Amino acid sequence: MNKTIIININGIVFHIEEEAYEVLRKYMIEIKRHFGKSPENQEILEDIEMRIAEMFSERIEKGRKEVVTMEDVEQVINQMGRVSDFEENSFESEEESAKETGYESEEEVVNKKLMRDPDDRLLGGVCSGLAHYFAVDPLWTRLILLVFVLLGGSGVLVYLILWIVVPKAITRSDKMAMRGQPANLQTFKESFQKEMDGVKESFSENSEQFERSSRYAGSVLLRIIKAVVRIVFVCVIAVIVLLLITLLIALCVGILGIFGLVGTSAIEPLNYLDPREAIWGFVAGTMVVFIPLFGLLLLFMRLVFKQKPVSNYLSLTLFSIWVISVIGVSYIAISNAQDFVETGAIKVEKELQEHEKFYLLQRNSKVIEAQSSADGDRLINIKTGDLEALLHAKIGIRFETLDSGKTPYVQYNYSAQGKNYEIAANRASKIKYHLTQDSDRLIFDSHFSLDKNTLERNQRVDLIVYLAEGTQVNISKELRSKLRGISYSACEPEEASNRAKSTDWVMGPYGLICLEKQDVDAEGGVETEAEVN
């Protein structure tokens, strides 16, 4: 049984075999002799010890063991390299070392890590970190971010989320992993030498007094700038958070209203969606708004309290859910937009009894206005309270001159939209609208209705009344909004006190012509209670 020794490397305790310890001790003495020539090299010695401790910890955890063996020490030395590897005559020294130890130096395979670069940052170092990861100039990643910000603002949310999720490269090992450099003696020395050369070049031309003064002034100015930027940034984040909270509350109240859980009005925009899609759309839409809001709240807490409130695992999980939700909302929007591609129409003709004069009236439904569409024409029957079957007022009435010798008739044009013509025509066939003739009176329904659970797909009814030339027509004022091709107000008296309840017209060779304006005492409408099926 091999004897073990307890050692401390960079504050971490390890159990190591005695033979392995002797090899490691000689290796560390060799490193300290080389890098301990100057007090400035103390930092690189600490970084090397930290890297060795990390590598031992990784091997112990991977091998599920408690003792560092000779194999572990040899592998670590292999990856870190020897001092002789980068001194003069390194090729000969490497061959001799390989013969003595009995193994060849293996090239360490390094995978880049996505980390934020604190040395080349404008705000959080995200863009420079991405540039290192994809091996491009940081200017390009910053330009791409700027384009996304200008196009819609999504770049700001992505940047803030990455700022929270992506860790910061703090140690020299982190910075090497960020750049894809192997963490060995050669790269440690090169990295440290670059830093020292940069410092020497920056301050070689200045005296010691000027160096202290400028460094102090720069430090004070930098602190002031950082404080101002932090305050402004916190204020901006707070305003954005408040706006998103307001948006989220409005979204929740609107959705609850849609499902009839709040308020007394019937809000029906989800009549455009299938009920199952509506539920998933609500969930996905809420996540699209809520997760960025939550991310901003976390960022706000991190800036104010200087603590990381959640783990990287939770941040990545929320980001994944947000991406899936965006995809879901996009899919629902695109699939429903495709349901408005084709327009289908159905034409039905019905004859009318001939009269020298027709009185056009409207059968009104007792309705209240619900949350209507943009043109304000969707209404709900107040008596039945059935909020699923809607009344619609997308109705147009035109008048055309009938060829001589033919019987007057009405042409019904029902139209709707769908993914293809067959679906659109089928929807159009389900429109329920009535025009009733009572002697010389033509009574038009004020609205048409749809079956329960029928999706809103721009359904409408257009009627064309064909009358013989010379036929007189008295049009009720209640039909004025439905008239097409003529202006009801053009046939009204100019005096507001003489506004007519109806106007008289006569069918000319090219359509209706206004007759003498007069107040007609006939009823302006026949009021009934429409039942919504």
UniProtKB/TrEMBL annotation:
Key words of the record: Cell membrane, Membrane, Transmembrane, Transmembrane helix
Localization per record: Cell membrane
UniProt entry tagged with the keyword Protein transport: no
InterPro entries: Phageshock_PspC_N (IPR007168), PspC (IPR052027), PspC-rel_TM (IPR054321), PspC-rel_ToastRack (IPR054319)
Predominant place of localization: membrane
Entry GO terms, CC: plasma membrane
Positions of the PspC-related transmembrane region domain: 209-340
Transmembrane stretches, start-end: 122-140, 146-166, 231-259, 279-301, 313-334
Phage shock protein PspC N-terminal domain sequence ranges: 112-169
Membrane topology: Single-pass membrane protein
Domain PspC-related ToastRack: 391-517
Pfam families listed in its UniProt record: LiaI-LiaF-TM_PspC (PF22571), PspC (PF04024), Toast-rack_PspC-Cterm (PF22744)
Xref: PANTHER family: PHAGE SHOCK PROTEIN C
Protein name, UniProt field: PspC domain-containing protein
Lineage: Bacteria, Pseudomonadati, Bacteroidota, Sphingobacteriia, Sphingobacteriales
